[in-house]
Amino acid sequence: MSANLKYLSLGILVFQTTSLVLTMRYSRTLKEEGPRYLSSTAVVVAELLKIMACILLVYKESKCSLRALNRVLHDEILNKPMETLKLAIPSGIYTLQNNLLYVALSNLDAATYQVTYQLKILTTALFSVSMLSKKLGVYQWLSLVILMTGVAFVQWPSDSQLDSKELSAGSQFVGLMAVLTACFSSGFAGVYFEKILKETKQSVWIRNIQLGFFGSIFGLMGVYIYDGELVSKNGFFQGYNRLTWIVVVLQALGGLVIAAVIKYADNILKGFATSLSIILSTLISYFWLQDFVPTSPYCNMKDWVGQVQWFIPVILTL
Ligand code: C5P
């Protein structure tokens, strides 16, 4: 049962990551009339959706009794303020990370973003070893080294990038810094959440409500600081369309699936599952969005080697 849940949650995660990254990139680059949606508000809406979904799950766990639901929420959240407060740390970090993700995808193509973000597998491994005392075998360390080489491969400036350096270097740099910071926050927050989840008995959905509660507060602070003026001028939901809602729902779904993966598998496996989605994103980004276009034979080979080599660490680790 638990092995089934492990592979089911990992499979859904591959689907969710691929669709989120492509839809988010598409929604941030689509040229439309009127104001574009504010990513800071999208982060808050996703948190609120996640809380609602988790409350429904706890309600189901409480045998669909409103009274039992009320009691669980009271006992586990309100009456344990110190336990609840523990979640403020990963939540603050995730909020920063979720905002960085939009910055990255507004400045980098979907495939480059995905590949670079895989460095989080390394940061996650390092945090797992130091915070959870996990032991990694030789093959696992080897696969991490291959992973890093791949990132360097893809990030190495190509002929075409050097030609267009003046045009895009600034935004590439911003995008890259955003992803690199997100790699560290992802590793730390994920392992911290895993530690809390595996060292205490509380339900994963209760933990997610606590996480989402702080996430919404931090997210609203972000809206106020970065987009306060725009929100007071054009409203909180300015620029929202059907695509924006799909992004927001996918992001909320991601929170639920990731929580399940951390519970039934672990953060390192989660990292490798998401790296499988790179292959999918790359293919779709190339064939459908025409977003990732190799421009010379050298660049062509370099980019594809960079993408395909991801199979090696995934296979070595499984
Ligand atoms: O890239 P990474 O795997 O670190 O992304 C984790 C994402 O999952 C973040 O967007 C975070 O907000 C979300 N998350 C969540 N609930 C959890 C754990 C992570 O919503 N319990």
Automatic annotation (TrEMBL):
GO cellular component terms attached to this protein's record: Golgi membrane
From the Swiss-Prot or TrEMBL record, state where the protein is found: Golgi apparatus membrane
Q: Which GO terms describe its molecular function?
A: pyrimidine nucleotide-sugar transmembrane transporter activity
Q: Which Pfam families match?
A: Nuc_sug_transp
| Keyword entries, A-Z | Membrane, Sugar transport, Transmembrane, Transmembrane helix, Transport
Highest taxon above the source species: Eukaryota
| UniProt xrefs under InterPro entries | EmrE-like (IPR037185), Nuc_sug_transpt (IPR007271)
Q: Topology relative to the membrane, per the entry?
A: Multi-pass membrane protein
TM helices/strands, residue ranges: 7-26, 38-59, 136-154, 174-193, 205-225, 245-265, 272-289
Q: Which NCBIfam families match?
A: nst
- Entry-linked PANTHER family: NUCLEOTIDE-SUGAR TRANSMEMBRANE TRANSPORTER
Spell out the family assignment given in the record's similarity comment.
Belongs to the nucleotide-sugar transporter family. SLC35A subfamily.
- Protein's UniProt name: Solute carrier family 35 member A3
